[in-house]
Design brief:
206 residues; mainly alpha; 68% helix
C-alpha cells in the first residue's frame, strides 16, 4: 500500500512539474511573440512618419550631415529625436500591455492541461513492471492446490456413489395369434350360455 501511494505521489509530482514548465514556456513565448509583433508594427509606423519630415530624405542620403543651414539642420534633428522618443514610449507601452495579459495567457494554457491518474485496480498499479514479481506465497499455492484436489475427489466420489435411476417399465406385450384365437373362442362360448359362471361358494365355519 505504501509503495503504491509513493509511486502515485511521485508520478503526480513529476506530472505537475512537467505541466507547470510546459505552461510557463508556452505563456512566455506567446507574450514575447505578441510583443515582437506589436513592436514591429510600431517601428514600421515610425519609419513611415520619418519619411514625411522635411529634409529627411536629404538627411538620410548624407548619413546625418546634409548640406543644410544650421536652422534647418537643428529642426530635422529635433523632429527625429522627438519621433524616436515617441517610438520608445510606444514600445514600452506595448511591453506593459503584453505583460498585463500574462495572467490571462497562463489561464489559457493551464486550462489545456489534463492530468489523468490511473485507478487503484489498474494493472499498472497492481502489477508494476519493476520490483519483485508478485507471485502468491508457496503456502498459499499449496493450500489452493490441496483445496482443488479435495474438491475434485469429492465430486468424483459423488458420481460413483450416486444411486442409478430405476429402469423404465417394459412396453405392453402384443398378444399372439393363438392367444387372440383362444380369447375369441372363450368369448363365443360365454355368449352362447348367456350368463357368466357363478362365483365359488364361501367356506362355512362352525
Amino acid at each position: 500500500m505504501c509503495v503504491c501511494v509513493l509511486t502515485q505521489t511521485c508520478y503526480f509530482s513529476l506530472q505537475l512539474l512537467f505541466s507547470r514548465k510546459w505552461v510557463l514556456d508556452h505563456a512566455r513565448n506567446q507574450i514575447i511573440t505578441t510583443f515582437n509583433e506589436m513592436r514591429a508594427m510600431r517601428i514600421e509606423a515610425h519609419r513611415n512618419y520619418l519619411q514625411t519630415l522635411p529634409f529627411y530624405t536629404l538627411y538620410h542620403r548624407y548619413n546625418g550631415a546634409p548640406p543644410l543651414g544650421a536652422a534647418q539642420l537643428q529642426l530635422i534633428h529635433s523632429q527625429i529625436s522627438s519621433a524616436n522618443h515617441t517610438l520608445q514610449q510606444g514600445v514600452d507601452q506595448d511591453w506593459r500591455t503584453s505583460c498585463m495579459q500574462y495572467p490571462q495567457v497562463l489561464d489559457y494554457y493551464f486550462n489545456l492541461v489534463s492530468v489523468r491518474l490511473p485507478r487503484e485496480d489498474d494493472t499498472v498499479i497492481t502489477e508494476p513492471v519493476f520490483g519483485v514479481p508478485k507471485d502468491p506465497p508457496r503456502r498459499v499455492k499449496e493450500k489452493e492446490r490441496r483445496g482443488a484436489a479435495a474438491a475434485a475427489e469429492s465430486a468424483e466420489y459423488g458420481r460413483e456413489t450416486r444411486t442409478p435411476p430405476p429402469p423404465p417399465p417394459p412396453p405392453p406385450r402384443t398378444p399372439t395369434r393363438e392367444q387372440q384365437h383362444h380369447h375369441r373362442k372363450k368369448e363365443s362360448r360365454r355368449n352362447r350360455t348367456g350368463r357368466t359362471p357363478p362365483p365359488a361358494p364361501m367356506p362355512y365355519h362352525r
